[in-house]
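Lecture notes, structural biology module. Today: joint structure prediction for complexes of two components.
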Amino acid sequence: MKNSQVSQVLLMIADLEEINGEEAFKAMSYRRAADYISKMSEAIEDTASRDALQEIPGVGRNIAQKIKDIIGTGTTKHLEDLLTKVPEELLELLKIPGLGPRTASRLYRETGVTGIGDLEAALKDGRVAALKGFGQRRVQALEKGLHDLGSRDRRHLLAYAWPVAEEIAQTLMSCAPGVRAEVAGSIRRRKETVGDVDIVAACNEENVPAVARCFLTGRGIGEVLAGGPTKCSIRLDGGMQVDLRIVRMHEFTTALHHFTGSKEHHVHLRGIAKDLGLKINEYGVFKEEAGSAEEPVPVKDESELYRLLGMDYVPPEMREDTGEVEAALESRLPSLVETEDILGDLHIHSNFTDGIDSIERLARAAASRGYEYIAITDHSKALAFARGLDEERLSQQAELIDSLNKSVPGLRILKGIEVDILAGGKMDLPDDALRRCDVVVASIHSGFRNDQEQIYSRLEGACKNPHVDIIGHPTGRIIGQRDPYPLDMPRLVDLAKKTGTVLEINASPDRLDMSDQYARACKQAGVRCSIDTDAHSLRGLDDIRFGIDVARRGWLGKDDVLNTKRLHHLLAEIGK
DNA sequence: GCCGTTTTCGGCCCGACTGTTTTCAGTCG
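The predicted structure, tokenised, for the full assembly:
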């Protein structure tokens, strides 16, 4: 049982409690515990086995017992009791913006709505409009929310799908001797969200049944969709579909290439192959010969495949047919930024605000990753719910950082702030306070419903502020949950170019903000990007991987990224 | 439900915004 799973169950209890009419503080307790558990480094099962659950902030006797139940059985009696009072489908309603637990409760009790389908009907036949406190605008907002919910495709975050896929591939390799297995598809191309998981496995003829059986009887399978000798397909309990292709050993390279896609990239390649008298499919590369059998051309690996086509190797992240084929033919593909190029993280939260780890622990963790520097960028005071810093607490933090810089060897902790961009483009802290910071990240956390002009003028205020270095999560989206605020991105890129402002690729898996295409626009315009985690815990530092993926999909090289620079170059570049 | 104490109960990160109100409840970050 993973931390995230325990956390999910606790969050479910919190929602149900609130819908059930319990006081909000009770629900808050569950959410606080859930939040901490999802961020902490230790596996919750280990915490439980050393009998230390109550040492977790926000976990007392009651929640500790429930966590034990959840680890043991996946649920707890308390949850089951709640579910007899409140239908589980009601939780779906909470995904509609502006519809919270009180409203869900009223809809249930006063109109009998138990889920999405019911709500749609109740909106249509006027039962909702007849409720007290439901005017025209509120009904319209619900209708829109419902519509948006339905149109959102059921894709999964890369950060969720990738480890699941890797685990399956690993399992397949251990189920018979000599099996090769690799994750293909959009996961291999590192798209931000993933529809289905594709895995390619190669083995000898006699091992095919073993590989298939291993795949079809693995953990967490909800449904077997297909189970043939070359293609197997399952749906996991979480709803994600996983397709497995089983090929012969000599077909592995071309099969992996084929199922990595994208389709558009392949269509383009096949055209080029045809001109060269070659045919490419999942089974191999073949010489096309008129009137006689096709002759297979041996292909050792993907590099060789591209070489056969007269091209440089195209990394999976670039295979979208957005110019990479032409560039590879002309040997002008950029060399993409690598994990090892990243020398620091410029957007990190500590336990001064809503992070859970101390600056010292974060610094030591960063040093052990081989980083040269990090910036502690806690929230500013406008974010009251996160205990945002005012000038006084910011100074206290600065003093602490000064002393830690003497005691933590091999790493420079930069003093930073993630300052809120307020209405009208004002910063949430005075220039004096910002001037004393080494790194200032400026972000929008409020007024998401501003119009395009208002948003732009706020960002303009930030970019033109001489102390602001980086715009944090520039579009404000949360993947699958919140649309970006209305932003004319090309205009922001132009502005950033003029003011020398860095735009962030926020690596938090549900943000990935900017996205790959905007990163690429930055590169084309000569605007510097930074790849930062926005970590709220030690574990969050690992998310850097997802930011690097975005950068690579955006064609960024080492030189395009601010935090690949050595410390003195970095400071010079941001004018410190 | 947690936590800390003023030790057995009272406060809990809190302010902005919105739609519906006419004085506020609900939602959100």
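Point to remember: The domain at 262-329 of chain A is CATH 3.30.210.10 (Beta Polymerase; domain 3).
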